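Good morning C.,

I know you're traveling, so I'll keep this short. The sequence:
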Amino acid sequence: MTDQLIEGYRRWRDEGWTRERGRWERLAKGQRPRLMVIACSDSRVDPATIFDASPGEIFVVRNIAALVPPFEIGGGRHGVSAALEFAVTQIEVSEVMVMGHGACGGVAAAMSREFEHKRAGEGGFIAHWIDLLDDARDRIVAEHGEGPDAVRALEMEAVKVSLANLRSFPCIPEREAAGTLTLRGSYFAIADGVLYLLDEVTGKFSAA
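The tokens, ready to paste straight into the viewer:
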């Protein structure tokens, strides 16, 4: 696989980089993306591909199930929180989008709780991350049971959970109130390639 990646790099260096050399020279002096996307690490849902974005246009953080933890200080390493703080307070993006997706393994694991009793290093890290969805899972199961419809509902509910957690960070609501920052929720359906956008007033997703 590494050989294939290196071959891909060489093709890009000979063609893509050369074609956009001026862009890369400008980017070497700094970045100024206006959009941050919080997406899943799933190899099928690359934000740059989905949004047909060029280098330098979006600031991306990816993790299992596109989750944002609530604001907290203290012990631990806060990778998502650090990326968020950097994007909002240093780069000063004007939009933050949470992008969930269909067939999400992290959400499916949150529904099944298959990692619940694993030790760290054997699934425990996964369990402690996706337990961010425990309350949402309970709500969804009470309404839909535990079938495929429930998993899809939880995939969409996870976006709302992350948006709520975003607003627990002090730097977010003050910028929303000032009109300098907008939060958006979205959901990408892999099978049909459709992006759905969340209307936070109605709580419904509709095709973009």
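Safe travels,
E.
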